[in-house]
Design brief:
Length: 325
């Protein structure tokens, strides 16, 4: 019990600067330990834990991937102290639990909210993050660009970090309405050696400079109680995607590019978001390449009232380029 008393003394809320430095150190420690964990869907996560019947952690992946409680003696003391300094430790029934989860993507590791991510300011990472990253690499890989890069609704910072690795940006801006997201994105970007500016705001509301490349993965699930990272608004969840896209398109520099990853509800064979987007963006100003990346995602949502007339939800990738004139 004396050990837990010492831990409790460490669990005072650290200062923002202290927590930020400790989060970067935590990522460096995980990288040094060869940590790897692919974040699955919520349904898969629950099924694996239920199937295995495991209730406490046995290794790093259990602590930082599967979000299982652990004994202080499981991890080396320096790592536990680092977690405490990062504000990432909580006590639960005499055990410790990490409030942060870590997912690997390529050469990087991204901190995000521990499972289950139910808090109003939760920062998500999962299959959509990997699809988003793959989409960006595909679209940016052949013709590297320069100039100002903006990641709207950056969350953990996946879009900004991945896009920056594909470009030679003169400036990188990560924007989000959620201060918790900005804190984690700042640590993730620093650990990835990506220097960026961080702006709190909705969409491009607080961005003034012309933008050369904009990337975005907006919330696109409808009717989820207004949580920052889930509720995509009207249009069966695509309204936020439409609003962000139109606002960002208006700030693109000549030959500027926007890469959007989102979900779209298909009703009676019609892609409603696609129809709304093409109707709103004039063809004489923008070239649009729109295609499905995955025809059927989040099928469990179809039982919700907001989706009673929806036959499937598709993951879509949209490339929008402003003409030079």
């Amino acid at each position: 019990m004396a050990g837990l008393t010492m831990v409790e003394a460490q669990l005072d809320e650290p200062s923002k600067a202290t927590a930020g430095r400790a989060r970067v150190e935590l990522l460096e420690r995980l990288k040094g330990a060869g940590y790897q964990f692919v974040a699955p869907s919520v349904a898969t996560h629950r099924r694996v834990l239920r199937r295995d019947g495991q209730t406490t952690a046995r290794d790093l992946r259990d602590v930082f991937g599967w979000s299982l409680p652990f004994s202080r003696t499981l991890l080396e003391p320096g790592l536990v102290d680092c977690m405490a300094a990062a504000g990432a430790l909580r006590l639960r029934d005499g055990l410790l639990v990490s409030t942060l989860r870590a997912a690997s993507l390529g050469q990087d590791i991204f901190l995000h909210s521990a499972f289950p991510a139910n808090a109003p300011d939760a920062v998500f990472f999962g299959p959509d993050s990997y699809r988003f990253a793959n989409f960006l690499v595909h679209e940016l890989g052949d013709a590297p660009r320069s100039g100002v890069l903006l990641d709207i609704g950056c969350g953990s910072g996946v879009g900004g970090v991945v896009a920056a690795r594909c470009m030679s940006p003169s400036q990188i801006i990560l924007a989000d309405l959620n201060p918790t997201a900005l804190d984690l994105a700042r640590a993730n970007a620093a650990a990835a050696d990506v220097a960026a500016w961080f702006v709190r705001g909705d969409g491009v509301a607080n961005i003034n400079e012309p933008l050369d490349v904009v990337v975005a993965n907006p919330p696109f699930i409808a009717g989820d109680g207004g949580r920052t990272y889930r509720d995509g608004g009207d249009l069966h969840g695509a309204q936020v995607s439409l609003d962000w896209t139109l606002a960002a398109a208006g700030k693109l520099a000549p030959s500027g590019l926007m890469l959007l990853y989102t979900g779209s509800a298909i009703v009676a064979g019609e892609d409603l978001f696609r129809a709304a987007l093409f109707a709103a963006l004039p063809a004489e100003r923008f070239a649009i390449d729109y295609h499905e990346l995955d025809p059927d995602i989040f099928g469990g949502q179809l039982s919700a009232p907001a989706y009673r007339d929806v036959e499937r939800i598709a993951a879509v990738g949209v490339r929008i380029e402003r003409w030079t004139t």
